[in-house]
Structure to design on (567 residues):
């Protein structure tokens, strides 16, 4: 993890209230794993005392760029979105533990993402595709206006889409698609709202896989104990989401 | 410039220390900078046995501040002594142990055990955590209990005892007086102010614990006022804290009467804030006409009409 002022080189609205931002910086040369995040300072002065953890959606080592995607959810993310190309953002990163892509032996990966949990899975899909692993992506969004990266995912493997209201893809949830398609895979990887993570990890309880947890954070480096999750089999009984996670083996932690 | 300050048990190279709960047991920040730069370090609260703490979410941002309700999560005093303190022995920086509990017996047990470790140079007696239902804060809001727990801990502690005061009282000077009578070697203030944030879409408090402790720049004027008030009624050394983000803020606390100044929430915004403040402090002191840290302590009381009773 390093501390760097990253220069914004592009900013684009890619879906409703959804911003894609690309930075240039030395940080891109770090060994960044899918699932790791940037801890970004918001605005100036004392208005925003807490950084915002935002997962990494892409890395281009040759161009030395890092891409994130975030949703406008409140004052903090609104302020972040106002930063323009040429501006610099104060970033800590890459933070946390990502999906261990280099250590896993497999032929077929099932990726399941919901809403703003989709971006880290895009970087994961890229890394798995480069390794010759077959990727199946199941994405869930509220409605058509929220959908992003559909074509990008399709270029890396099979892609299934569900929306709550049926305005794009199948009407229903990612779990409905998993039920219907009965995929064969070696490992699953899921990221999204807690409700979805619980549903997916319950549905796939007999499979091996990883979940990535979203939580409000304080320090982002493991010192403040703001973001913890019970881990009954560990020595301490808990894991720190920012430092030990946000990626965990699905059976390692108990979602609240 | 001479930044040294000497407080009971604490021989500090400068007056800056991270506040308890914002710095864990030092390991994470040690990966970012040399902890020897710090005047002292206050480690996370220790209780008698391990505590998991509250449900999440445990933090929420507020205007110029934040709410937290961690709930004193810690591995318990024995584990802290065995697993956390040895790492801190490698630094030439005095360590202050924050001691919490639900009963007088628990405070006494934790203080006795942790103060025996050679790395611990002082205790910060936490009678002011607002986030734990069964303990802590009642000792900080009732003068008789505050005095009693201070005296009991003083009796068993091998090191000086600083009592950390709650701002969530009608008159903080009453509690300060009580713990002074109980034998406190110093005071530490302020802990967080209780607050709440309600999520509009969810129509319920954002924190799982509903109520949390407010910290950050938003509380600084309250902290300055309380340090100033207490400086007028006692000569006990004060570790001041509440919303410090800059060397200017540090000077303000020194003027109010603090002898050392802790930095809490700002560590989350800027993880390098403590060494940055230490670096900037000499220039700020010079700019306002001081030649050392000692020189500035309490100087906010030397104006013509400093007596608060006339305010």
């Amino acid at each position: 993890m390093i501390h760097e002022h990253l220069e914004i080189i592009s900013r684009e609205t890619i879906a409703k209230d959804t911003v894609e931002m690309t930075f240039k910086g030395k940080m891109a040369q770090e060994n960044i794993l899918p699932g790791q995040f940037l801890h970004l300072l918001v605005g100036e002065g004392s208005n925003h005392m807490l950084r915002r953890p935002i997962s990494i959606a892409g890395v281009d080592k040759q161009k030395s760029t890092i891409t994130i995607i975030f949703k406008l959810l409140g004052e903090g993310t609104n302020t972040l979105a106002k930063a323009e190309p040429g501006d610099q953002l104060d970033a800590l990163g890459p933070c946390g533990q990502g999906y261990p892509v280099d250590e896993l032996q497999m032929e077929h990966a099932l990726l399941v993402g919901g809403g703003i949990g989709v971006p880290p899975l895009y970087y994961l899909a890229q890394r798995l595709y480069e390794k010759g692993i077959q990727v199946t992506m199941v994405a869930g969004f509220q409605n058509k206006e929220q959908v992003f990266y559909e074509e990008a995912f399709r270029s890396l493997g099979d892609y299934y889409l569900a929306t709550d209201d049926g305005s794009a893809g199948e009407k229903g949830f990612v779990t409905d698609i998993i039920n219907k398609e009965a995929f064969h895979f070696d490992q699953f990887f899921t990221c999204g709202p807690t409700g979805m993570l619980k549903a997916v990890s319950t549905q796939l309880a007999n499979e091996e896989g990883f979940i990535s947890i979203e939580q409000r954070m304080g320090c982002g480096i493991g010192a403040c104990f703001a973001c913890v999750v019970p881990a009954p089999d560990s020595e301490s009984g808990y894991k720190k989401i920012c430092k030990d996670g946000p990626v965990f083996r699905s059976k390692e932690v108990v979602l609240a | 410039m001479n930044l040294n300050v000497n407080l009971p048990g604490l021989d500090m190279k400068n007056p800056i220390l991270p506040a308890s709960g914002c710095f864990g047991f030092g390991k994470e920040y040690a990966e970012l900078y040399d902890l020897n730069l710090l005047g002292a370090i206050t480690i996370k609260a220790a209780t008698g046995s391990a505590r998991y703490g509250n449900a999440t979410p445990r933090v929420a941002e507020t205007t110029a501040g934040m709410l937290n309700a961690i709930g004193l999560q810690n591995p318990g005093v024995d584990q802290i002594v065995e697993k956390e303190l040895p790492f801190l022995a490698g630094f030439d920086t005095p360590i202050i142990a924050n001691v919490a509990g639900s009963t007088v017996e628990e405070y006494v047990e934790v203080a006795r055990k942790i103060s025996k470790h050679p790395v611990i140079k002082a205790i910060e007696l936490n009678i002011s955590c607002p986030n734990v239902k069964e303990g802590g804060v009642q000792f900080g809001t009732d003068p008789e209990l505050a005095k009693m727990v201070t005296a009991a801990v003083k009796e068993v502690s091998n090191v000086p005892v600083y009592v950390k005061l709650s701002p969530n009282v009608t008159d903080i000077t009453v509690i300060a007086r009580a713990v002074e009578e109980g034998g406190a070697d110093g005071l530490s203030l302020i802990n967080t102010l209780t607050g709440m944030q309600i999520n509009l879409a969810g129509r319920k408090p954002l924190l799982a614990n509903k109520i949390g402790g407010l910290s950050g720049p938003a509380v600084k004027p309250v902290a300055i006022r309380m340090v100033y008030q207490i400086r007028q009624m006692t000569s006990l050394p004060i570790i001041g804290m509440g919303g410090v983000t800059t060397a200017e803020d540090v000077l303000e606390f020194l003027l109010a009467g603090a002898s050392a100044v802790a930095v809490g929430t700002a560590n989350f915004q800027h993880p390098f804030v403590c060494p940055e403040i230490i670096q900037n402090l000499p220039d700020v002191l010079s700019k306002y006409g001081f030649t050392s840290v000692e020189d500035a302590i309490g100087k906010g009381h030397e104006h013509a009409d400093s007596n608060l009773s006339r305010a």
